[in-house]
Write a structure and sequence with these properties.
Blueprint (H helix, E strand, L loop, with lengths): L1 E5 L2 H18 L4 E4 L3 H17 L7 E4 L1 E3 L10 H8 L11 E2 L8 H14 L5 E4 L21 E4 L2 H6 L14 E4 L2 H5 L3 E6 L5 H9 L17 E6 L9 H10 L1 H7 L1
Parallel strand pairs: 1-10, 2-3, 2-6, 3-5, 6-9, 9-10
Antiparallel strand pairs: 4-8, 7-8
The structure holds 2-amino-2-deoxy-6-O-phosphono-alpha-D-glucopyranose.
């Protein structure tokens, strides 16, 4: 894991977008793994800006989203498909047929999950996977006790997650589904590169456990400790509970990859 601490959330999301931009410019047909949530809105806004202002080209790339709510149709205002169309897909030149978001309303969900894994493999695997962090430590919707070897599947959401995401459902908890489809922790670990962005004081104690704590299926994001190429971009507020801060700062100054990223 390599960690970059940015002064503000704005800088953290801008840097995350720049990392994605670099990957896309290096490999225009990359398979991008994408995430949803409030944190990502700013990341996607920066990517849209790069498309509009400096011609960032999405024409050849493929995308695979991490997750979707079960029982929510793709064209529902509450679906992650709608979120992705609104924040990114309709605002850049990606081919819509090259974008993949699990269909939470499908009747044959288990078969669709297997097919999702096959589609990822057929695309050559995810080149760069973007990740947020849930307040309970989930990545995607891999709730506590998800096996590190888990694949795309249907999961039951943690009550904490349902409460955390109530904003997408007009603040009405009853509308938040109890189940979701998510790439597994194993699927995420298969990505060539993982980039996790975490902002805000509400996630500070969880971030410290993810970076400095012991690996445990209770906190899915700790699995990233065994990924060979994982970059974690955070703001000062999220970094507030880290105890290894002096060494992280030393690394930001002297690690060649981080130096290049921050120059
Ligand atoms: C949802 C998504 C996660 C995301 C999380 C963070 O739970 N399934 O993939 O990481 O939201 O959301 P936010 O950025 O709104 O805190």
């Amino acid at each position: 894991m390599k960690v970059v601490i940015c002064p503000t959330a704005e800088r953290a999301t801008a840097l995350t977008a720049r990392v994605i931009e670099q990957a896309l410019r290096q490999k225009p047909d990359i398979a991008l793994g994408l995430a949803t949530g409030r944190t990502m809105e700013a990341v996607y806004a920066h990517l849209v800006q790069a498309h509009q202002n400096s011609g960032l080209d999405f024409a050849a790339c493929r995308t695979f989203n991490l997750d979707e709510y079960v029982g929510i149709a793709p064209d529902s205002a509450h679906s992650y498909r709608t979120y992705m169309n609104a924040h990114l897909f309709s605002r850049v030149n990606v081919a819509l047929e090259a974008t993949h978001v699990p269909d939470g309303a499908a009747t044959d969900l288990d078969a669709r999950c297997v097919a999702y894994e096959q589609a990822i493999r057929a695309s050559g695997g995810v080149g760069l996977q973007l990740l947020g962090l849930g307040e309970n430590g989930h990545i995607g919707f891999n709730e506590p006790f998800s096996a590190f070897t888990s694949r795309t599947r249907v999961v039951t959401l943690d009550p904490a997650t349902r409460r955390q995401n109530v904003g997408m459902f007009d603040g009405d908890l009853e509308q938040v589904p109890y189940h979701a489809v998510t790439m597994g922790v194993g699927t995420i670990l298969d990505a060539h590169r993982n980039v996790m962005v975490v902002t805000g004081a509400a996630k500070a104690s969880m971030l410290a456990r993810v970076i400095e704590g012991a690996m445990s299926a209770c906190i899915s994001a700790t699995a990233l400790q065994m990924h060979a190429d994982c970059l974690v971009i955070v703001d000062e507020a999220a970094a507030g509970a880290l105890s290894c801060r002096p060494y992280l700062e030393h690394l930001m100054q002297h690690d060649p990859e981080l130096k290049a990223l921050l120059s």
